[in-house]
Automatic annotation (TrEMBL):
Its EC number is 5.2.1.8. GO terms for cellular component: endoplasmic reticulum. This is peptidylprolyl isomerase. Gene3D superfamilies: 3.10.50.40, EF-hand. It comes from Salarias fasciatus. Its main location: endoplasmic reticulum. Keywords: Calcium, Endoplasmic reticulum, Glycoprotein, Isomerase, Metal-binding, Repeat, Rotamase, Signal. GO terms for molecular function: calcium ion binding; peptidyl-prolyl cis-trans isomerase activity.
Length: 437
């Protein structure tokens, strides 16, 4: 007999939880803010009100008089996801006068409630479910640029957004107000590769207004994040020597022609590229901007046989744009490199040098057919001969014919495709010019 409900206590509510969520990290307390759905009926089952029909949650503080007394009491102790029937006597509902035409005087009320959201305005963010990689040499600080993946949901599990669905990381500076305050805070102190759950109360997220169609006002947000990488714009390339041969006397420098192997990957281990796949080394002239600055840094002052591990921040790698289909924008790169071979370069600015004294009869030696002019073919043959005989050296790593072409053009003052003795002398008298005889 429903009317006997209040026999023991005419000012008491009855609560009956008929669904308990598997996890309950927190229960409603006085002064908490809650969002819930309800159906309100009279004891005879007559529905007098429903938040479901309005298609929006009822949002309110609990236990501080914003609600009828029966609800202020009945919601206490609820978990998000819990379903509870709260039955209250008229004294804790609308009393002897009732409310409007739907709730008569002296009516006991039955509320079937499902709690969707819960926070306290004093709450900060909470970080849970942390999975920190074993090797974590550095954690993020304000001003770092972080790339991460996330799944975003409401406290009741309703999904609202995911970076995975867009198949690209969310990238941002942290601690500088570019993202909601709670995320700005939750991304501080993370390690590369770390996973964590960041729970953010609405005043540190989208507030009472919410945003878009999926984040209602006053919603607590739950982000499961996975840190892919981060860097600071002030970072330089981090070079770690992983193996050094016993004999390591000759070190690379600017201008040297180097042949090396590399394995490239992202910080999360995603492979990018490897010379081992091609079975041949990558060959460059150091300091000639043939590779990204971070790789130039990593290859300097290295000896043949040495192995290194490089961590290259994006501003010394492929920048904000990355490489389409290979390197994501703003990605930190990891290279494992091995110097296989090197050829010493020429002094800076030179493309050809003599190993020994220059012949006093240079012009005559070049002018093979003795017609008093040096033609391009004569010039080329002569230089290549000197190189073959070990008397001169071309800058390694460049196309010798292009170098020789340039040398010829430098000597051919009037650009008629021939070098006369006069042009030759004139040029030879000028000092401090490079790439010439
Ligand atoms: Ca000639
Ligand atoms: Ca000429």
């Amino acid at each position: 007999d429903l009317n006997r409900l209040w026999d023991n206590c005419t000012d008491c509510i009855h609560t009956n939880t008929y669904h308990t969520p598997p996890v309950c990290s927190r229960k409603v307390e006085v002064s908490d803010f809650v969002r819930y759905h309800y159906n309100g009926t009279l004891l005879d089952g007559t529905l007098f009100d429903s938040s479901h029909t309005r298609m929006r949650t009822y949002d309110t503080y609990v236990g501080i008089g914003w609600l009828i007394a029966g609800m202020d009491q009945g919601l206490l102790g609820m978990c998000v996801g819990e379903r509870r029937i709260i039955t209250m006597p008229p004294s804790l509902g609308y009393g002897e006068n009732g409310d409007g035409s739907d709730i008569p005087g002296q009516a006991s009320l039955v509320f079937d409630v499902v709690l969707l959201d819960l926070h306290n305005p004093r709450d900060g963010i909470t970080v849970t479910n942390q999975q920190v990689p074993e090797s974590c040499t550095r954690t993020s600080v304000a001003g770092d640029f972080v790339r991460y993946h996330y799944n975003g949901s409401l406290l009741d599990g309703t999904f609202f957004d995911s970076s995975y669905s867009r198949n690209r990381t969310y990238d941002t500076y942290v601690g500088q107000g570019y993202v909601i305050a709670g995320m700005d805070e939750g991304l501080i102190g993370v390690c590369v590769g770390e996973k964590r759950t960041i729970t953010i109360p609405p005043h540190l997220a989208y507030g009472e207004e919410g945003t878009g169609s999926k984040i209602p006002g006053s919603a607590v947000l739950v982000f499961d994040v996975h840190i892919i990488d981060f860097h600071n714009p002030a970072d330089s390339t981090v070079v770690t020597v992983t193996s050094k041969p016993e004999e390591c006397d000759v070190h690379t420098k600017k201008g040297d022609f180097v042949k090396y192997h590399y394995n490239a990957s992202l910080m999360d281990g995603t492979p990018i590229d490897s010379t081992y796949n091609y079975g041949k080394t990558y060959n460059i002239v150091l300091g000639a901007n043939q590779v990204v600055p971070g790789m130039e840094d990593g290859l300097m002052d290295m000896c043949v046989g040495e192995k290194r591990h490089l961590v290259i921040p994006p501003h010394l790698g492929y920048g904000e744009r990355g490489v389409t289909g290979e390197v994501p924008g703003s990605a930190v790169l990891v290279f494992d490199i091995e110097l296989v071979e090197m050829e010493e370069g020429l002094p800076e600015g030179y493309m050809f040098i003599w190993n020994e004294d220059v012949s006093p009869d240079l012009f005559a030696e070049m002018d093979k057919n003795e017609d008093k002019v040096v033609e391009p073919s004569e010039f080329t043959d002569y230089i290549l001969q000197q190189v073959n005989d070990g008397k001169g050296r071309l800058a390694p790593g460049f196309d010798p014919y292009r170098i020789i072409d340039n040398m010829f053009s430098n000597q051919d003052r009037d650009g008629d495709g021939k070098i006369t003795e006069a042009e030759f002398k004139l040029k030879a008298d000028e000092s401090a010019a490079h790439d010439e005889l």
